[in-house]
Design goal:
The structure holds two protein chains of two kinds. By secondary structure, chain A is an alpha+beta fold. Chain A has helices spanning about 5-10, 55-60, 80-85, 90-100, and strands at about 10-15, 35, 45, 65-70. Classes of the chains: A alpha+beta, B alpha/beta.
């Protein structure tokens, strides 16, 4: 498994269902302000260096888009890279989001 | 695209506007502490600028450790009208932050984040208010009770507080002062380890809140259909008390809860 929590130190990940949704309910509950995006972004991103693994974002998300990294559905595993990458190079992360946004959303 | 096609994570090179938003500023000063036990303290912190919050919400308390901001959420027990925040902190052995919090002294600088969270009172709610807390989960309830006492029409208030050791009954003196001032507060503290030597003088309720719930509800003359319940603390106890309250007729939508996972 390429995207384990140990590798990226990633506690929570925001996946496909966030793309093009703007409820931003997670921002109102994240105790450590570790979720960010900019005007150019189509989703929100969890900063793995700040996330404390509390799960408030997952409870609050109306789109069920936030997952603990070890519970991230396999078809969305790339989003662990995307979230971590955004806090290093937002443009590189955005480019991957554009590609992932084209993928059909699996029925769940 | 497959996982293997993604490149290694790039080096951190954020645009300046993003770096600015993520910049860490130590923005508060420690102004006092009261150690209740070796592992529980009330820490008083004064933010440089007033930090607005609603009773029941949490703020993050952080320190710079090895060049990295490490934060954990705490719900202030103090009134939102007060500038100084009172935070009830439990020491977690081997934890990432709390052992460092234990070394804090007056004058030390820390980071306080914005208030967050949906665990809040409703305006003009005249139902009987039942608060059930374990351990440090009592902190937001003290702020909430303080706010209810400011309202022109005060509902009946019951607080059940479960702890391991009686010295962990934080804010019991404040509740006593409220009662002596004539406020209608039923305060039912319980220790879960009555056999422990530190609890030798304990003569009141003994056992876990989940087991004591029926007796405590009877003692506080709680009337389930006209009750709103706020639960905070150990997730297993919160879940057990929630089930117990529903069996006693408290509707699910009248039960609010906040779970304190073991934060380190």
């Amino acid at each position: 498994m390429a995207y384990t929590r140990e590798e990226w130190n990633m506690a929570y990940v925001i996946a496909q269902p966030c793309i093009d949704h703007n409820e931003r309910a997670c921002l109102d509950v994240c105790p450590v302000d570790c979720i960010t995006s900019e005007a150019a972004d189509r989703k929100l991103y969890v900063d793995p260096d700040l996330c404390i693994d509390c799960g408030a974002c997952a409870d609050a998300c109306p789109n069920d888009a936030a997952f603990r990294a070890d519970k991230l559905p396999a078809e969305w595993a790339e989003f662990a890279w995307v979230d971590a990458a955004w806090y290093r190079d937002p443009a590189a992360a955005r480019q991957v989001v554009e590609e992932l946004a084209m993928a059909p959303v699996p029925s769940r | 695209m497959t996982l293997r096609q993604l490149p290694p994570l790039p080096a951190r090179r954020l645009p300046p506007r993003v770096e600015h938003r993520l910049a860490v500023e130590l923005n508060a000063t420690v102004v006092g502490r009261t150690d209740l036990t070796d592992a529980v303290m009330v820490l008083r912190v004064r933010p440089d600028e007033a930090l607005p919050f609603a009773a029941g919400q949490y703020v993050s308390l952080g320190m710079m450790l090895d060049g990295r901001l490490v934060q954990r959420p705490y719900s202030p027990a103090s009134s939102p009208a007060q500038r100084e925040l009172e935070l009830l902190v439990r020491h977690v052995r081997g934890g990432e932050l709390t052992p460092h919090l234990w070394r804090l002294a007056n004058g030390d600088r820390v980071r306080l984040g914005r208030a967050k969270g949906l665990f809040r009172l409703e305006d003009d709610d005249e139902r009987q208010h039942l608060f059930v807390a374990t351990g440090t989960g009592v902190a937001p309830m003290i702020a909430m009770i303080g706010e209810l006492l400011q309202r022109p029409s005060q509902p009946k208030i019951t607080l059940l507080h479960g702890v391991g050791h009686q010295r962990e009954l934080a804010f019991a003196d404040r509740i006593g002062a409220w009662q002596r001032a004539g406020h209608r507060i039923s305060y039912l503290p319980a220790v879960s380890r009555p056999e422990h030597p530190e609890n030798a003088e304990w003569l009141a309720w003994a056992g876990r809140l989940t087991a004591l719930l029926p007796e405590l509800l009877q003692e506080s003359s709680c009337l389930p259909p006209r009750t709103v319940a706020y639960l905070c603390g150990n997730p297993a106890v919160v879940s057990g008390v929630r089930d117990g309250l529903m069996r006693h007729g408290v509707p699910a939508d009248a039960i609010r809860h906040e779970e304190y996972w073991p934060i380190s």
